[in-house]
Recover the amino acids of this structure.
């Protein structure tokens, strides 16, 4: 079965995604001019967004990665239990850290990550998310940069997986209701 059989609709087409990412890159570049910027990508979903965003950030910056888990294979909702699978390799003390996320849903995962990183005393800690699913929020998370506010639907593509598949799609799609298991 291919990805087309799972798509209910294309929520955000490739051209709209790329245009908004370019805008975010310009804004972030202006905000971090002259600062020691570290982009922290939350794997796996954030990697496509990170690579495209980096191309539009004109100030010098470095990157690091964290891998966390709050979903299991075949899960359509976060469990609320967060596990760190891979931590940063960089010391963030005194640095300007920008967390780069694919999607913020309930907020539990990001709340955990921000508490963990704040304890390491960065100069600043801000959040950039491609997708914001505010209807599902259970934890108040201040977002600094938002690509798109989206409805409470299961989405995949452009880094977001459907059972670990279809991250490579250049758009964000909504899963057909009949495919939700």
């Amino acid at each position: 079965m291919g990805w087309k059989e799972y798509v209910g609709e294309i929520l955000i087409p490739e051209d709209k995604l790329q245009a908004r990412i370019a805008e975010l890159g310009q804004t972030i570049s202006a905000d971090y001019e002259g600062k020691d910027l570290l982009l922290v990508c939350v794997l796996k979903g954030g990697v496509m967004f990170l690579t495209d965003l980096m191309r539009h950030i004109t100030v010098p910056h470095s990157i690091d990665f964290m891998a966390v888990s709050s979903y299991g294979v075949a899960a359509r909702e976060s469990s609320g239990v967060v596990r760190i699978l891979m931590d940063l390799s960089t010391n963030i003390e005194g640095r300007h850290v920008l967390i780069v996320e694919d999607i913020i849903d309930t907020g539990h995962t990001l709340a955990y990550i921000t508490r963990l990183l704040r304890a390491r005393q960065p100069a600043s800690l801000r959040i950039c998310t491609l997708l914001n699913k505010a209807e599902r929020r259970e934890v108040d998370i201040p977002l600094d940069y938002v690509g798109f506010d989206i409805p409470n639907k299961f989405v995949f593509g452009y880094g977001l997986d459907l059972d670990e598949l279809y991250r490579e799609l250049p758009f964000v799609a909504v899963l057909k209701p009949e495919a939700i298991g």
In short: Residues 72-76 have pLDDT under 50 and may be disordered. Helices lie at 14-31, 47-54, 108-118. The chain has one domain: 14-153.
